[in-house]
Write a structure and sequence with these properties.
Number of helices: 0
Helix content: under 10%
Shape: globular
Radius of gyration: 13 Å
């Protein structure tokens, strides 16, 4: 049974940085990538970044491109979301998700399991 646990959220001023972590209990063979999504109050959940396990073709949504970076520590079963130059509009609940298939041009369409989320709040 796969479990994903996010951490690293918090409150930060605009222009600041945070690093989110997503730790997996195990990655079954059907999981080939991890993605990050976020959801702000009153808005739909949006996919913002993803990293496949076997290819270096990460996806970044336009609204975070150049500011956010995904990295992975395979030994620790951990995927990170490095967030720099944070803006108030980045405030949201952030979720990691395991997927069988990720793309370099859009968020994954099929999610195998979601994490519980970690809150990020950016003040101006």
């Amino acid at each position: 049974h796969v479990q994903l646990v996010e951490s690293g959220g918090g409150s930060v001023q605009a222009g600041g940085s945070l690093r989110l972590s997503c730790v997996a209990s195990v990655y079954p063979a059907k999981v080939n990538c991890v993605a990050w999504f976020r959801q702000a109050p009153g808005k739909e959940r949006e996919g913002i970044a993803s990293m496949p396990f076997t290819a270096h073709s990460p996806f970044y949504a336009d609204q975070v491109k150049g500011r956010f970076t995904v990295s992975r520590d395979s030994a620790q079963k951990t995927v990170y979301l490095h967030m720099n130059d944070l803006k108030p509009e980045d405030s949201a609940m952030y979720y990691c998700a395991a997927s069988p298939l990720c793309f370099s041009t859009q968020p994954p369409q099929r999610i195998y399991v979601w994490g519980q989320g970690t809150q990020v709040t950016v003040s101006s």
